[in-house]
Specification:
single chain, 135 residues, mainly beta, Jelly Rolls, 6-stranded antiparallel sheet, 4-stranded antiparallel sheet, 12 strands, 4% helix, 53% strand, globular, RmlC-like_jellyroll, RmlC_Cupin_sf
Length: 135
């Protein structure tokens, strides 16, 4: 994925079409205390609609970067590995993840993800909550 200058959005039958690779990904350094700089785009924000989804992010971990170990409160965050491989830490257990894996992170659980390979790791992260219905 490139971080080159954004290209203008394409107008396809009166709909603005943007490209994640070219237009939307932003650099984030030290995400949750992780290593290096990852690329991310928040696809959905809780403020955008009255649904219990807090956010949906597309995230790219370049080689040898990570999302540090962290916890959330009363919500459920899920990682969907779109491409690549990495090492997931979930409530003290560490294991390999690969394209197609869906990893639910329980409320108050500790989790982090590291890309220990030479290729990008791409994932979708979505968070539902808070589960008690409070926003």
């Amino acid at each position: 994925m490139s971080t080159a200058e954004p290209t203008p959005a394409r107008d396809m039958t009166n709909r603005q079409i943007t490209n994640l690779n070219e237009d939307l990904l932003q650099s984030i350094t030290g995400d949750h205390g992780g290593a290096g700089t990852i690329l991310a785009h928040r696809v959905y924000r809780a403020d955008d609609a009255p649904a219990p989804i807090a956010f949906i992010d597309l995230v790219v971990l370049p080689p040898h970067t990570s999302i540090g170990l962290h916890r959330h409160a009363d919500d459920r965050e899920t990682y969907v590995i779109l491409s690549g491989r990495g090492r997931m830490t979930l409530d003290g257990s560490e294991f390999e993840v690969r394209a197609g894996d869906v990893i639910p992170n329980r409320p108050y659980g500790e989790h982090g993800l590291a890309n220990d390979t030479e290729a990008d790791l791409q994932l979708l992260v979505f968070e539902i909550g808070p589960l008690d219905g409070d926003r």
